Request: fold
Amino acid sequence: MEFQLWIYYLLAILILTATPGPNILLGVTTSISSGFNSSLYTIFGGVSATIGIMTLSYTGLGIIVASSQILFDTIKYAGAIYLIYLGYKALTSTQEDYTIDKDIGISKKDKFSLFFKGFLVASSNPKAIVFFIALFPQFIDPNSSMLVQYFILVGTFLVPELFWLLLYAYLGDKSSNWFLAHGRAKFFNRITGGVFITAGILLGNSSRS
Reply:
């Protein structure tokens, strides 16, 4: 891959990863309600799913999903339902306050649950597969090592992706004092619930194009 071509790819990725989406929202809400350390597990879960999606897209297996309406719709509706479920849980929560004891460690069960939640949110959007299938060919040099280019493309994506996810989660943690005030947990849950439900509806109504 030529350096100039890589710069174009990097600029596209910087814009893409900086745009708030369900992954960032999940990281922020987890950081506010459970602390920054807890948000790390949802972030790593989401990043793991993204690596899987990029690998499928790069190897061509993602074409099967992109070209199969049944597979595409199955993933799409499963993801939409899960996002709406998260929104419903937040909207119907009776929690009035957040209480975070940052001195208490996270249990293995909670770590897995947080990781799995992040993984599900990130992997529930089949349009990501379509996006990478459309993006990668524009930056792949057929005369260069495909394996080396894979690591360059994936690595270039992961660095800014992790940066923005961690930054948003960190800012969420720093603003948690405001949200920890009495009664604000309910207000925050209403906002995040509405956003998750809206994201789920949008995903459910999306198409491959």
Notes: Residues 35-204 form one domain. The chain has a mean pLDDT of 79. The radius of gyration is 18 Å. The first helix runs from residue 3 to 18.
